[in-house]
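Tokens as discussed.
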């Protein structure tokens, strides 16, 4: 437990603008999202390890946020659970809030469904300076 309290103390004491903080924050956020997906699917650590062809110890390391991920590894972890890895880059001063919008995608093509969507500006009142989710209305 001393290791966890030391890590938490460090994490809480670092400036959010510090790159080391941002790295740890991203790893922890990924681990939490992965655990959520595992919980939703009822997958245990040992089962995930088997799906990955890795050890349970590695999965534990991943879920603690101790692993130094590559994007390839992050995509594979999400994929074996039936998920999809998503990411974004924004300016440091901007706050990001993810909204989970669950929709069914047509099976006929992998990406054909994209062409049936309205333009982003039609969906959410988008301009070059802001995205205002409160004014979002879906086109019929």
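Sequence:
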């Amino acid at each position: 437990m001393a290791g966890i309290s030391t890590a938490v103390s460090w994490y809480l004491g670092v400036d959010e603008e510090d790159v080391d903080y941002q790295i740890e924050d991203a790893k922890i956020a990924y681990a939490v999202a992965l655990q959520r997906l595992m919980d939703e699917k009822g997958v245990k650590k040992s089962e995930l390890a088997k799906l990955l062809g890795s050890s349970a110890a590695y999965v534990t390391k991943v879920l603690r946020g101790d692993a130094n991920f590559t994007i390839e590894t992050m995509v594979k972890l999400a994929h074996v659970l039936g998920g999809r890895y998503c990411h974004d880059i924004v300016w440091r001063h901007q706050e990001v809030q993810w909204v989970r919008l669950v929709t069914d995608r047509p099976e006929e093509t992998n990406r054909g469904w994209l062409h049936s969507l309205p333009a982003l500006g039609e969906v959410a009142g988008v301009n070059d300076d802001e995205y205002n989710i409160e004014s979002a209305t879906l086109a019929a």
